Amino acid sequence: MKVALVHDYLSEFGGAERVLLALSEIWPEAPIYTAFYRKHSPAWEYFKDKKIITSWAQKIPFFSSKLYSPLRFLAPKIWSSFDFSKYDLVISSSSWYITKGFNEICYCHTPPRWLYGYRTSVDWQKYWPVRVYGNIIGYFMRLYDFRQAQKVKYFIANSEEVKQRIWKFYRRESIVIYPPVELEQCHSATVSQKSDYYLIVSRPVGGKGIELGLAAAKKYGFKLKVVGGGAVTDGELVKLYSQAKAFLALSRDEDFGITPVEAMACGCPVIAYNGGGYKETVIHGKTGVLFNDYSAAGLWQAIKKLEAIKIKSSDCFAQAKKFSKVRFKREIKEFVENRVK
């Protein structure tokens, strides 16, 4: 069976790229089609040995660094320039660049957040000229996004939260296969002596709740470490997770949320806002605490609740194993074998 993989673009290495990497391990001969591929980027290090097929947008100066976002209206032209007719199966890894509509299996990380009113990493509505431009483009892109969603053969959602969004915006059914979450160095033997800090691991962008964590730490005087995604090695990250008193997951509407599962894989309890994908990964009272009052005071109360209960590292390990890469590969292969002949 000839398989092709499709992904928004290759620049950063986050949760969506981890899914793509796992898919490419299942089908190592499958080429990866993408809008553009930024050399020497974090993603480049993981995919440099793969066969990457980029669109004509790769040749536009500065497109991969500065222009891909303001020129997002080119997405229909980008994806229509590829010919997938020679493949028996196309699997797309789709997030905000509307990477769908190839009569394929679409692994949907989320319908594009910027199109449907969810907070994004950049506050693009801050300045009125950008807001007007974005709203005009957004209207036509929503129409395009809906049409493309109807061409998808099967939808896979990365969480129950995203499954609900797929139905809400596309009126399409989907099944949930949680993404692979794995830090190779994380084992029960890596549990270290706990230190005195709380931890946030996130890219330094909006929508991730970093501001809430900093405000609460300043007001109530607890020690907080904030680590930018990709700023440390996996080995260093494991040490930070395993020694933290707890991990803080503070996005209001996370699609899934890989970092809380990584934390639990290292025996670290999680304090998470009771919303989005966090509700599906953190077990309240067993692997951490979920809180509803999204404020510095609400976070502080959650910290005090966690300090008053005993969280077992073994429970955190067990919960994290439910989201392993081995499990992801098995479920994806079973899904394909049962539907694609």
Note the topology.
Elements: E1 3-7, H1 15-26, E2 32-34, H2 42-47, E3 52-54, H3 63-67, H4 75-80, E4 89-94, E5 105-108, H5 128-151, E6 154-157, H6 160-170, E7 175-176, E8 197-201, H7 210-220, E9 223-227, H8 234-243, E10 246-249, H9 258-265, E11 270-273, H10 278-281, E12 288-291, H11 296-308, H12 313-321, H13 325-339
Parallel strand pairs: 1-2, 1-4, 2-3, 4-5, 5-6, 6-7, 8-9, 8-10, 10-11, 11-12
Helix pairs in contact: 7-11, 9-12
Task: Tell me about this structure.
The protein has 341 residues and is α/β, with parallel strands linked by helices. It folds into two domains: 3-180 and 324-339, Rossmann fold (3-Layer(aba) Sandwich), CATH 3.40.50; 188-321, Rossmann fold (3-Layer(aba) Sandwich), CATH 3.40.50.2000. It has 13 helices and twelve strands. The chain has a seven-stranded parallel sheet. A five-stranded parallel sheet has the order 9-8-10-11-12, with helices on both faces.
